[in-house]
Amino acid sequence: MRIIIVGFGNLGRGICKAFVEKADFLRKVHGLVPKVVAVADEFGAAVDENGLDLPQLLKTAESYKTVARYRGGRRGKLVLDLIDEVSADLVFELTPTNIKNGEPGLTHIRRAMQAGKHVITSNKGPLVVAFKELDSLARKQGVEFRYSASVGGAVPVIGLAKKLLSANEISEIRGVLNGTTNYILTRMSAEGVPQEIIIREAQELGLAEKDPTLDIDGIDTACKITILANAVLGMNAKLSDVKVVGIRRITPEATRLAQEAGQMIKLVGIARRDLLEVAPKLVPLGHPLAVGGTLNAVTFKLDLAREISITGFGAGPRETSSSLLGDLIDIHRALGG
Ligand SMILES: NC(=O)c1ccc[n+]([C@@H]2O[C@H](COP(=O)([O-])OP(=O)(O)OC[C@H]3O[C@@H](n4cnc5c(N)ncnc54)[C@H](OP(=O)(O)O)[C@@H]3O)[C@@H](O)[C@H]2O)c1
Fold this sequence. Notes:
Blueprint: E1 2-6, H1 10-21, H2 23-30, E2 35-40, E3 44-47, H3 54-64, E4 74-75, H4 79-85, E5 90-93, H5 105-114, E6 118-121, H6 124-141, E7 145-146, H7 157-164, E8 170-176, H8 179-191, H9 195-204, H10 213-216, H11 219-231, E9 243-244, H12 252-260, E10 263-272, E11 275-284, E12 295-302, E13 307-313, H13 317-334
Parallel strand pairs: 1-2, 1-5, 5-6, 6-7, 9-11
Antiparallel strand pairs: 2-3, 3-4, 8-10, 8-12, 10-11, 12-13
Bound molecules: NADP nicotinamide-adenine-dinucleotide phosphate.
């Protein structure tokens, strides 16, 4: 499979490391030989129609902060040219999330599909802004489109719902879908320390963004609820349809009182056909959603199976490569491989 990777940050590098580490496994178990023929970041690109030397590419990106310094690499905004001109089967779109207009990811994905290339993305922006359009475009162009990593990181929320639970009608999806806020709430409740101090420490540890607003105010979770509503419940939801309250007003005192009552406060996203909501909720200790630290957890309400819950790591380059690689294997199989 010939692959173009657009965006070579945590996840772009993570998937390349997984290709190197798991080359034998992929070939022997899945008959899959991924060949990365082009990689682009914001500053430039590296291209080799015979396949890039991934260990060398990773070294270059670590040392120079851009793939443009790889041998024969080029500087400039080259993504759309690469998508049009490089002979490849599939594009990984792994650029930063922009929930205002989905760019630059939205244009990259449209262009890849128009060029007849399959697409895998972890980028919530294009999915929040234009899910229906992209889903239809993929069908029209006869290409595969997967986005497992966009919700739950390594936790196979979308795959579980769309594949393994497909005998069920799903009446509700309820989830702890943001690791940063879960980490903050977990430490507030364990240590009684104010939010601002934990946020600062989380930033130092790389667990929170420099600007954690989208996490703290519940917008990141609302994006994931919008994606689940559209991709799993078949709705035509917009981000503005989600009622959102973040965790800013949660005090250490509130988390202590909850704990005394055998509960935890969690930022919970809910997707139902009659309600899309993100808000802090009380969750009983021992409930599948009462997960600590940066973990994510999701519970499905189902007509046949009643309730199924799943938990795991919602972020991290190595963990999330599980979903990205899983999507690639899934497409390889869908194509008869
Ligand atoms: N990290 C996770 O665990 C995780 C989990 C699930 C989903 N996601 C989502 O996955 C996406 C990628 O995450 P990440 O952590 O890998 O982000 P990241 O580390 O910020 O990497 C983003 C990459 O995209 C590049 N880029 C920015 N604008 C570009 C453009 N116009 N053209 C080409 N490349 C461009 C950046 O290049 P420069 O470095 O040159 O600016 C960088 O290489 C995001 O949408 C994120 O929300 C991340």
